[in-house]
C-alpha cells in the first residue's frame, strides 16, 4: 500500500473510531432481530403484501422467501433515468426464477441540473440530495425487506440513495445503473457554440440545434461530470457489478447485468452465500477508494461535498485535507471531457473504470476490498484488459497525464476552498488580479454582456453557499469566463457556491467556507482588492493590509430569503445546513 494512502486511511479510521463503532453497533442490533415474517405483526404483514399476487404471498408468508426492495429514481423526463421504466418487471421476473420476490418500495425525485442551470430551480438542487436520502429511508422504513436494489444515476441521486441506504446499513444493497447515451455532438464542439452564443456570434436557433445534437437520447450525458463520476466512485467502492456502469441502455448486455444485480443482492443477503450488508462494506478503506478514484480520473468537484456526507452516514469523518493529501500521491490517469477531448463512451472503449481500478490496485493506491462481486474488488478489476486501448484517454500509473490528482485545497485569509486543476492551463494556475464583486450570477452575466469585464479580474460571487440560497451550481458562468480567458485576460472565479462537474477550463476557487452569509471572509472583499489564487502553493488570499482587513464589517446579504419555485419550502434546510466541507448536510 502506498504510504500516503495508508496514512490517510489510518488517520480517517482513528478520527472516526467512536462514530464508526456506534454505527456498527446499530447494525448489529438490527441484525439481531428475527426475519420480517417472524417479527412483524400479522396486520403489518397483511398490509405489506396485500397487492401481491396469491403465489407471491404464499412465497413470503409460508415459504418465507427473500423480499427485495426497489428504490427507483425513474421518471421519463430525464434521459438518464428514463431507461428505468422497464426495470421493475425485469427484476420481478428474475426474482421469480430465483424463488424470491421484489417490491417497488418507493420512488425518489430526480432533478437535472442541466435543465435547472441558471434558473431558480437550481437552488433546490443540492438539497434534493437529502430529500432523496429521506425518500430512500421512507421506502425502506416498511422494514419487510431482506435487501435493496438502488436505481439511480445522476448528480444528487446516487449520493442521496447511498446516504439513505447507509442509514439502513444492515441491508445488503446493490446499485443498478442504466448507462450513458451514445455519442452525439462532441463536448468541445458544444462548448464552442456556447461561447459563440455568449458573444452574440450565433443565435438561439443554432445554440438549440447544437445542444440537441449533444443531448439526444435516453442515457446519461456523455461528459465526465458529476453523474458519470458517481458511476466511477460506485465501481471503486464495489457497490455495482463490475463493468456495468457505462454499458448503453439499449445494449443487449444491459438486461443481463440488470438480472445479475438481482441475483447478486440475493447472494449477499443473510440467506445467501456471502452476507455483505452495505454498512459493513462501506468502511474507511472503501471511502478512501472512492476519493482516490475521483482524483485519478479528474472527477467532479461536487463529490468533495457529497462524499463527505456519504462518509458521515457510515460513521466516517473525512475533510478536504484528506482529499488534498491523497491528491499529492494519486496520479491523473484519465483525460475525459472537461479534462480532455474524449467522452465517457471513449473512456469505456479505452478500458473504462475497471482498467483504472486495475492500475490503482496494482500500484498500491487503492485497497482491495470485499464487494458485491465474488472475490472482491480485485477480482472484478481483473476483467479489464491489461493495456489501455487508447493512451490519449487512459494512461498507466507509470506514465500518467500528471503526477498528482485533479483537485487541490486552497486556504488563506479568504477561507478554505477547492479548485479543480486537471483542466486548467498550466499558465493559469496562478492568477493575481483586482476583485470584481457580485452577489448573483445574473449580475455578473449582465456586466459581461455590457462589455464591462474586459480586464484582468478575479470575479467574486458571494452569498451562494448552502445557508444563503442552497448553493446552486454556477455553470452558466463558464461560457462568459471562458470567452474572457480566450481573449487573453487573466480571469478567475472565487465563490462560496458550486461549479458544475463539467467545468474546469477557468481557474475557480469554489465551495469557499465559511460562506459569506455566515460572516465568512468573502463578505469583506471590496471591488478593486487585489486577490491571489495560487493552485501551486495552495493559497487563496486578499492582498489587503491585515489591520484594514480586520476593520472591515462583513457586507450584509443584499437580497431577501429565496422565495418562489418552492424555495420557501427549503428554509429549514438552509437554516440547518452544515458547511460545504462538512457535506452541506441538513440532518446532522
From TrEMBL:
Record EC number: 4.2.1.12
Residues that bind [4Fe-4S] cluster: 154, 221
Cellular component GO terms, alphabetical: cytosol
Pathway connected to this protein: Carbohydrate metabolism; Entner-Doudoroff pathway
Cited InterPro entries: 6-phosphgluc_deHydtase, Dihydro-acid_dehy_C, DiOHA_6PGluconate_deHydtase_CS, ILV_EDD_C, ILV_EDD_N, IlvD/EDD_N
PROSITE patterns on file: ILVD_EDD_1, ILVD_EDD_2
Catalytic activity: 6-phospho-D-gluconate = 2-dehydro-3-deoxy-6-phospho-D-gluconate + H2O
Domain of life (superkingdom): Bacteria
Any one Gene Ontology BP term: D-gluconate metabolic process
Cofactor(s) it depends on: [4Fe-4S] cluster
Chain ranges of the Dihydroxy-acid/6-phosphogluconate dehydratase C-terminal domain: 393-584
Sorted UniProt keywords: 4Fe-4S, Carbohydrate metabolism, Gluconate utilization, Iron, Iron-sulfur, Lyase, Metal-binding
Residue ranges annotated for the Dihydroxy-acid/6-phosphogluconate dehydratase N-terminal domain, each copy included: 66-373
Gene Ontology molecular functions: 4 iron, 4 sulfur cluster binding; metal ion binding; phosphogluconate dehydratase activity
Textual note on the cofactor: Binds 1 [4Fe-4S] cluster.
Functional summary from the UniProt entry: Catalyzes the dehydration of 6-phospho-D-gluconate to 2-dehydro-3-deoxy-6-phospho-D-gluconate.
Family to which this protein belongs: Belongs to the IlvD/Edd family.
Name of the protein described by the UniProt record: Phosphogluconate dehydratase
Organism: Extensimonas vulgaris
Gene responsible for this protein: edd
Amino acid at each position: 500500500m502506498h504510504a500516503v494512502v495508508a496514512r490517510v486511511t489510518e488517520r480517517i479510521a482513528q478520527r472516526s473510531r467512536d462514530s464508526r463503532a456506534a454505527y456498527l453497533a446499530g447494525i448489529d442490533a438490527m441484525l439481531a432481530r428475527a426475519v420480517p415474517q417472524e417479527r412483524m405483526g400479522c396486520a403489518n404483514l397483511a398490509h405489506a403484501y396485500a397487492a401481491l399476487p396469491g403465489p407471491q404471498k404464499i412465497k413470503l408468508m409460508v415459504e418465507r422467501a427473500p423480499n427485495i426492495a426497489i428504490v427507483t429514481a425513474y421518471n421519463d423526463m430525464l434521459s438518464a433515468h428514463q431507461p428505468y421504466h422497464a426495470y421493475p418487471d425485469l427484476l420481478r421476473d428474475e426474482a421469480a426464477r430465483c424463488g424470491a420476490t421484489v417490491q417497488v418500495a418507493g420512488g425518489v425525485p430526480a432533478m437535472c441540473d442541466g435543465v435547472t442551470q441558471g434558473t431558480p430551480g437550481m437552488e433546490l438542487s443540492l438539497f434534493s440530495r437529502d430529500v432523496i436520502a429521506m425518500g430512500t429511508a421512507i421506502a425502506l422504513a416498511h422494514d419487510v425487506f431482506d435487501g435493496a436494489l438502488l436505481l439511480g444515476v445522476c448528480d444528487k441521486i446516487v449520493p442521496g440513495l447511498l446516504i439513505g441506504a447507509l442509514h439502513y446499513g444492515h441491508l445488503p444493497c446493490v446499485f443498478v445503473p442504466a448507462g450513458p447515451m451514445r455519442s452525439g455532438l462532441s463536448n468541445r464542439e458544444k462548448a464552442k457554440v456556447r461561447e459563440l452564443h455568449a458573444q452574440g456570434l450565433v443565435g438561439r436557433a443554432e445554440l438549440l440545434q447544437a445542444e440537441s445534437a449533444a443531448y439526444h437520447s435516453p442515457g446519461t450525458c456523455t461528459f465526465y461530470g458529476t453523474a458519470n463520476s458517481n458511476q466511477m466512485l460506485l465501481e471503486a467502492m464495489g457497490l455495482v457489478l463490475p463493468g456495468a456502469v457505462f454499458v448503453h441502455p439499449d445494449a443487449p448486455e444491459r438486461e443481463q447485468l440488470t438480472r445479475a444485480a438481482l441475483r447478486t443482492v440475493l447472494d449477499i443477503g443473510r440467506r445467501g452465500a456471502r452476507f455483505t450488508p452495505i454498512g459493513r462494506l462501506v468502511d474507511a478503506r472503501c471511502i478512501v477508494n472512492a476519493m482516490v478514484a475521483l482524483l485519478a480520473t479528474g472527477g467532479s468537484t461536487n463529490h468533495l461535498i457529497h462524499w463527505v456526507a456519504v462518509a458521515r452516514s457510515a460513521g466516517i469523518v473525512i475533510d478536504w485535507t484528506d482529499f488534498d493529501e491523497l491528491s499529492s500521491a494519486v496520479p491523473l490517469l484519465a483525460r475525459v471531457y472537461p479534462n480532455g477531448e474524449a467522452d465517457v463512451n471513449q473512456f469505456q472503449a479505452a478500458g473504462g473504470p475497471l482498467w483504472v481500478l486495475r492500475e490503482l490496485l496494482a500500484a498500491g493506491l487503492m485497497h482491495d476490498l470485499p464487494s458485491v462481486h465474488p472475490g472482491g474488488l480485485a477480482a472484478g478489476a481483473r476483467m479489464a484488459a491489461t493495456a489501455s486501448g487508447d493512451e490519449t484517454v487512459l494512461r498507466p500509473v507509470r506514465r500518467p497525464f500528471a503526477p498528482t490528482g485533479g483537485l487541490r485545497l486552497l486556504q488563506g485569509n479568504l477561507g478554505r476552498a477547492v479548485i479543480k486543476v486537471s483542466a486548467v492551463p498550466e499558465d493559469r494556475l496562478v492568477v493575481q488580479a483586482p476583485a470584481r464583486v457580485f452577489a448573483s450570477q445574473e449580475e455578473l452575466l449582465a456586466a459581461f454582456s455590457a462589455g464591462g469585464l474586459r480586464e484582468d479580474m478575479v470575479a467574486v460571487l458571494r452569498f451562494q453557499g448552502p445557508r444563503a440560497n442552497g448553493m446552486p451550481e454556477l455553470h452558466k458562468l463558464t461560457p462568459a469566463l471562458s470567452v474572457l480567458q480566450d481573449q487573453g485576460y487573466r480571469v478567475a472565479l472565487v465563490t462560496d457556491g458550486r461549479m458544475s462537474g463539467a467545468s474546469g477550463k477557468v481557474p475557480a476557487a469554489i465551495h469557499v467556507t465559511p460562506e459569506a452569509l455566515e460572516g465568512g471572509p468573502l463578505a469583506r472583499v471590496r471591488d478593486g482588492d487585489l486577490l491571489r489564487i495560487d493552485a501551486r502553493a495552495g493559497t487563496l488570499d486578499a492582498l489587503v493590509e491585515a489591520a484594514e482587513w480586520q476593520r472591515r464589517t462583513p457586507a450584509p446579504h443584499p437580497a431577501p430569503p429565496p422565495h418562489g419555485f418552492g424555495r420557501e419550502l427549503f428554509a429549514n434546510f438552509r437554516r440547518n445546513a452544515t458547511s460545504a466541507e462538512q457535506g452541506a448536510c441538513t440532518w446532522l
